[in-house]
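Here we describe the complex-level prediction in full. Unlike the single-chain runs in Section 2.1, the two entities below were treated as one system.
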Amino acid sequence: MAIRRTETTSRSTETGRVRRARAPRDPRVRAGRALRVVTVTVLAVLFLIPFYLLVRNGLATEQDITAPDWTFFPRDLQWSNLTEVFGDPNLPMARALLNSTLIAVSTTVGTVLLASLAGYGLARIPYRHANLVFYAILGTLMVPAAVTFVPSFVLVSSLGWISTLRGLIVPTLFSAFACFMFRQYFLGFPRELEDAARVDGLGYWRTYWRIVVPNSRPVFAAIGTIVFIGAWNAFLWPLVIGQDRESWTVQVALSTFTTAQNLNLHELFIAAAISIAPLVVVFVLLQRYIVAGVERSGIDD
Amino acid sequence: MRATKAAAGTGTGGLLARLRGRQNRNLWFWAFVGPFAIGLALFTYVPLAWSVYLSFFDAHNTVTPTDFVGLDNYTAMLGDDAFVSSLGTFLLFTAFIVPATYVLSLGLALMVNRLRFAQAFFRSVFFLPTACSYVVAALVWKLSIFNGVRFGLANTVLGWFGADQTAWLSTTDPPWYWLVIVTVRLWLQAGFFMILFLAGLQRIPPRLYEAAAVDGARPGWQTLRYITLPQLRATSVAVVLLLVINAFQAFDEFYNLMSDARGYPPYARPPLVYLYYTALGQEQNLGLGSAGAVILALIIAVATVVQARWFGLGRKED
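The structure predicted for the assembly as a whole is:
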């Protein structure tokens, strides 16, 4: 990944130099370039508006938000909104954040562990029916999880797992998609490294943990962050399973107040801003890996 | 193929080593794949099978029904206008969101790719909405941008130009709610697909553009039409497939934008919202809901195979 990135930047500066040497006199090219910069800037502002609104409304008083005349930013920032939202007995914000954290972290760890082991086994351990197993796993990709929520609800409710963390976590741990991505990656893992380990007398298990995993950290980070974002933002499954207030995730709590019950706008917006804060931090710190994960997920074959 | 290789490999060693080696391999294969495969079977195949079973029964509020009704649930589902119209809603939604996302994300990628400065910054800005959940985005759209009253952003901006206020989500003629629904998803997913297109653009060898320039192709529309788009074909196929599947699974933004204390309005119900209210609403009609889930699963499986075949056959021709 890192290698490809440097390659492309050097390539683009190269072509940039060629173009600069050839074209700057042409007014049409210059106009096109200026138009592009303007368009991109306008779109960037539009894309940032929702984030601006979250912060603006979250740190304003109720009167500021509902005032007929638009204020671009509240004159006095209401930091007390933060304490208010955590103190509101109607909105179980702290509990919801805790639930979301527990669910997202354990889903990420569990999914990556299970899917990477399975992906490695499918890619590297010769077994007569490996293809059959692989197609059985691939077949579930055809049936998206959103369509199976009714049958899965049936199963989870007969296990007695409604409104439990188990019910919210365990059924989501087996991602055929993650398994597929790991398998594709391990197929391209340099065999020489594994052969060297084999010569040293390591079996599959120890080769995997001592050679393969330490040399694949970027892929684990990429798939892990994608899974984490998906788990944190998941809505349908937590809505179906988390029926008691105690088992609400952040998304379900926010949704409840968006769709049905009345809550002060400033509280709802500061709660929403808090709910995306962890992901924005993850995004800023790990964007390299997330981009790699997205690119990996789009590879179709 | 892998199996034949394994068989060939075992033909050389001694009998004992061969047996042990083979056994070990099978054992290790299941040690690696087993936990995942068992979980997947338990939480995907078992519910699916159970659901098919339930769909032949009258299962109100129960998962162990006794009242066999044959295909009644299926005929009831397919005869239900609301179900059929939910499929229509999905088609309409797809007709809007797939081309819109395709064009916007490809356009963003093309522009960002050719920026001389701040490329990483703009890429991050367009990609950032991917971090946002549909719930939060719907909240902002519903309560701040398109809330339909005077302090909403859309009405404020329109007010500057002297336009009247619009109740975006409750106006059915013209159906302004579609604007709200489509823009939420457009904002959320355009950056994700932009990243896919950027990756595709960077795989195009620069010498193609150099050769085109030598041949006299004008930069701009001609190179886009004859080099960039054909080179992006594989990416485009993947993007369209993902967009259609995602549109079929749309639930979050519809549910959060449209439903309120009075429930969900009778219009703009995509299939999953309909299914949600049928299976898990007050009646908890799990038999009917299961029949609906089976029908939807079949539709999406067929649609995916057809699309893959269509594009796959096209690719073999190149």
